[in-house]
Design a protein that fits this description.
single chain, 339 residues, alpha+beta, seven-stranded antiparallel sheet, four-stranded antiparallel sheet, 7 helices, 32% helix, globular
Length: 339
């Protein structure tokens, strides 16, 4: 996910300051649904007038039933259009302004937000993002289907707002909450510790699945988002180099990953689609920060072991059911055992 900042110059000396600007709004969908609903209500009323139900008991009773239904449908469409036009949350640095469906505005500061209650549950109807102050009064309510809601959620995380997330929420939400911002100096230790956990999980998996007769080629690599070719497989990608990058300030789009390739008799295992059976998990990622007064952040994933365990369990169940062959591939980048 890319986070965009607006840059403006302030002050007499023309010093450029990063300004955080986010607008969460309803997007185009409510407009489309609202207009269609209004047209349907009008069409329903016109058609019922032109082609009345002859079997209806009493003309007055018939029209008393038809017209209120048509009016309610039209009003529902108008409400959706009003909601699309007015309802939004505008963020500029630490200042927030919420406008409800009737156009009424309420302003508050980032420091006024005591906590956020959120849920995004697949297969359910729980989709909300509610902000509360210290007195547990609701400041505003948004939904994740609104435009830029995920960016705003990241804004809350980056500014260390307390977030209460439902247990059944989408994995991506929990992944975002599992990202911890760390210092440049902590990167080496964080990556090495995470890789130790990965190697232990791999060891346990191989011991448990001896009947497969396979092994893993694993290691640490680093990439720049701008240099990754999405048309190439993982083994074909070129690393940007770990050692040189860690000696200086880490650039935006830089990521340190742990990756593994399944081997059989020393060759890479290839599935029926022609792809090497492998995994890649991002440990460190550098991105623009949505924290007020901060430009870049170094994110550290605390769920590396959990994510790998899930992938290994899935592979354990699919390996016996599918056909594979092996190829002698050569990685286009180096895998390191430590930083």
């Amino acid at each position: 996910m890319k986070l965009k900042h607006h840059i403006s110059c302030r002050g007499k000396e023309g010093v450029c300051i990063t300004v955080i600007k986010i607008e969460v709004n309803e997007g185009k969908t409510p407009w489309i649904v609202g207009i269609i609903t209004i047209l349907f209500g009008i069409s329903y009323g016109v058609l019922c007038t032109m082609y009345p139900n002859k079997s209806a008991k009493g003309e007055v009773f018939y029209y008393l039933l038809v017209y209120p239904v048509a009016v309610l449908i039209i009003l529902a469409g108008v409400w959706l259009c009003l909601d699309a036009k007015n309802r939004k949350l505008v963020v500029e640095d630490a200042a927030l302004c919420y406008t409800n469906s009737f156009g009424r505005k309420s302003s508050f500061l980032l420091s006024d937000i005591a906590y956020c209650s959120t849920a995004l549950e697949n297969g359910g109807n729980r989709d909300f993002l509610k902000l509360y102050n210290a007195e547990k009064e609701k400041l505003c309510k948004l939904e994740f289907n609104m435009h830029n809601s995920i960016v705003f959620f990241q804004y809350l995380i980056d500014n260390q707002v307390k977030i209460e997330c439902s247990e059944k929420s989408d994995y991506y939400l929990k992944y975002m909450l599992g990202m911890e911002t760390i210092s440049h100096e902590a990167v080496t230790t964080a990556v090495n510790d995470a890789y130790k956990e990965v190697k232990e999980l791999i060891r346990i998996w191989i011991e448990k699945n001896k009947e497969f007769g396979v092994e893993w080629k694993t290691g640490i690599a680093a990439y720049l988002e701008s240099e990754v070719d999405t048309k190439k497989q993982l083994w074909e990608q070129t690393s940007c180099g770990i050692v040189d990058s860690l000696s200086d300030k880490l650039p935006e789009g830089y990521a340190v990953t742990v990756e593994g390739y399944l081997l059989k008799d020393g060759e890479f295992v290839i599935n029926k689609k022609g792809n090497a059976v492998c995994f890649i998990i991002t440990i460190i990622s550098v991105a623009k920060s949505l924290k007020v007064g901060e430009e870049l952040k170094i994110g550290y994933s605390k769920s590396v072991s959990e994510e790998l365990s899930t992938q290994l369990a899935m592979l354990e169940s699919t390996l016996p059911r599918n056909r594979y062959h092996t190829e002698a591939l050569v990685l286009n980048h180096e895998l390191k055992d430590s930083l």
